[in-house]
Amino acid sequence: MTEGLDLAAYLDRVGIGGAPAPDLAALQRLHEAHVRTFTFDNIDVLLEQHPGVELADVQAKFVGRGRGGYCFEHATLFAAVLDSLGFDVERRLARVGDVTAAARTHCVVTARIDGTRWLCDPGFGHSLLHPIRLEDGAEEDFGGWSFRVCRLDRGASGATWELQRHRDGAWELMHTTDELPVQQVDLRAGHHFTSTYPTSHFRHGLMFTRHLPGRHVAVTHEGVTVRRPGEPTEHHDLSEGELEALLTELRVGLTDDETERLLAVVGQLRTQSP
């Protein structure tokens, strides 16, 4: 899938000049640049206009328009970039939250460097800034954000990897990744489920997030949550006219028509909220 990638355009979009060598420093730099450049959001799902998860469509949306999206798109683009640069890359699927109830509807990327695998997670609501070692007990602190990986042996089904975030004095499960190979058809199926299944939360609420300097901002159709490392989480209800300002501040990159339609959808969602 990487043949159609415009690597130079991607690197220009994320602010990296020239193709870096496939080493850990480059992987860390690329991961943070990607996360800070592209929002995590479900806007195209709500607008019933999602182009799909093929590389050409994701590249046109992210690189061409500066838009963001959700995990299948982020992982597709990021994996293609790493592969083009010479990294040893694989995509993996994960379950968010309770593994007994959640489908495999999250996608991550692993990169192997000098025998060590690194978990890249550029398309999560509160994404890692840098990759984390895919080793049992590995902990990383990214500017005050602390994460941990734990390996679980699930018998015949093989090993799985929990990614946890340190929050309010305890470790909170984010998602659990398995070791099964991932083909493009798996991403198509996952995307189809999350974007069309009647009870999918991606269809019933707005979400867009971005890492800004010193803080992470998450917006829904109901409120705004701001997290800063080592400080209490801030939350307030969405006020009149605030959504338009946040779409601009977080550089979501919608057209005027998309903004107008999104505001109408959000108005409906807020009317339906209890």
Automatic annotation (TrEMBL):
<dbReference type="GO" id="GO:0016407">
    <property type="term" value="F:acetyltransferase activity"/>
</dbReference>
<dbReference type="InterPro" id="IPR038765">
    <property type="entry name" value="Papain-like_cys_pep_sf"/>
</dbReference>
<dbReference type="InterPro" id="IPR001447">
    <property type="entry name" value="Arylamine_N-AcTrfase"/>
</dbReference>
<comment type="similarity">
    <text>Belongs to the arylamine N-acetyltransferase family.</text>
</comment>
<dbReference type="Pfam" id="PF00797">
    <property type="entry name" value="Acetyltransf_2"/>
</dbReference>
<protein>
    <submittedName>
        <fullName>N-hydroxyarylamine O-acetyltransferase</fullName>
    </submittedName>
</protein>
<keyword id="KW-0808">Transferase</keyword>
